[in-house]
Protein 1
Amino acid sequence: MNKFIIAGNWKMNTTITDGVEIAKNIALNVDQIANLKSKIIICPPFTHIYSIFKEVCKSKISVGAQNCYFEQKGAFTGEISVDMLKAVECQYIIVGHSERRLYFKESNSDINKKIKAILTNKLNTILCIGETLEQRKNGTTFDVLKKQLDECLADISEEEIKNIVIAYEPVWAIGTGVSASINEVKEAHDWMRSYFEKKYPNAGKDIYLLYGGSLNDKNAPEILAVENVNGGLIGGAALVPEKFLSIIDTAEKLSV
Ligand code: PGA
């Protein structure tokens, strides 16, 4: 079992040429780490996935997608199914990112259907949850997280949860350059751990709880050292190989 999962969420960035170069750079450097202990995932835009897979398939990097649709096929213009992603060798799919919830009105029930489609195809999910600044200010953070987890994970069994990674991403920390404080990270991750231990008595203690939201090469040593932080979902810093590699290096040093 890996101690940390370090995942890059590229969002809607890079042309395919630039994206392949970034992925090659990361793969080349990660492959030089002897006895790699972390799981490294990059999630580029849909259009890049197969080209990047072909470049990195012999490396230690896994490739993921940033979204999917829950139907298998049919008249859903503009959507991409889990089957299609599996066919281009995706191993992970991010669902429930706050940008999808905000701009594309994705609901917890949509996310639940996506997770079920991902499980049916035997791929892994990275489920994002997190509160807005307003919710944090009015003291409802943990009600919000509970509702998101309860609804997104409705009818997910103890066996199935093993294929799901959780990313706690406070919305107010995403892309702002200001991460949650160490205390805020610790409080949220401890809360999630006890939520999962209660809900899934056997699997709960081993569920990966990633932190995301302005995680970078500078704050990674402190954030990844927090108990119950099992890795990171990284946006901006994942597009800069030196920064992403430095976060991986931190995870390796913290892995015992
Ligand atoms: P950020 O994005 O690292 O740029 O804040 C994280 C994310 O949205 O997953």
Note: The domain at 5-11+68-242 is CATH 3.20.20.70 (TIM Barrel).
Protein 2
Amino acid sequence: MVRTYRNARLHHRPARTAQAQASGITIKTPAEREAMRRAGQVVALVLERLGKALEPGMRTRDLDALAAQVIREAGARPAFLGYRGFPAVVCVSLNEEIVHGIPGERVIQEGDLVKIDAGAVVDGMYADAARSFPVGKVSPSVKALVEVTRNALEVGIGQARPGGSVGDIGYAIQRYVEDRGYAVVREYVGHGIGRNLHEEPAVPNYGVPGDGPRLLPGMAIAIEPMVNIGTYWTRVLDDGWTVVTADGSLSAHFEDTLIITEDGREVVTRYNGK
Ligand code: MG
């Protein structure tokens, strides 16, 4: 899930733990990191299972039911259900829908681009991740968009290291995406994560190198590029949740939760941590 970010602005913060905590950024204890790893493995499993189950003819609520089952069987709790009133376990967003689609009666068709965003809680600690799945045979433009967005997440993760800044991540993602002729969404951003789904700092997919809060070992963030073929402007549907591209163009979304380590980062929402 993403944070709303209507007043885009980065903050300068010195690289000191006390300062980081004063700004609302938390440093996770070893026990908290371990719980986040366990939550992350549940999220990885949900995304794997839903990705394999996806096929034309399914309703989006079928994916939600499967996610609920996988999370329950893993002994975890769904992170999104009831969050600010969100009525489902996962977000399922199709085609021009960017994020926060509500699973329901809609039938998935061959050629759709389905974005699934999942979150889980273990021992009070959150993990959050998303993948974009082309269904069946899709157009070359869909394939290219998915590839660029997946790579943009890798580029962002590569900038997540102690001593780096949130601006380094945003800059790298924006540069990578815009150099290829696509747009990064501005009005929704990645976020800190831990005891809450959304914590400080905001992690925009755009920015200036060296700008924004410094990254320290033990911080946890969710990086989540949302990439559009057309404009970066968005609007929200009448359901109050579903965010779509303002021009109806296609959008893709990839997200992982990671913990900053002494020498880089650990991606908790993947099986291998990388
Ligand atoms: Mg998120």
Note: The first strand starts at residue 3 and ends at 4.
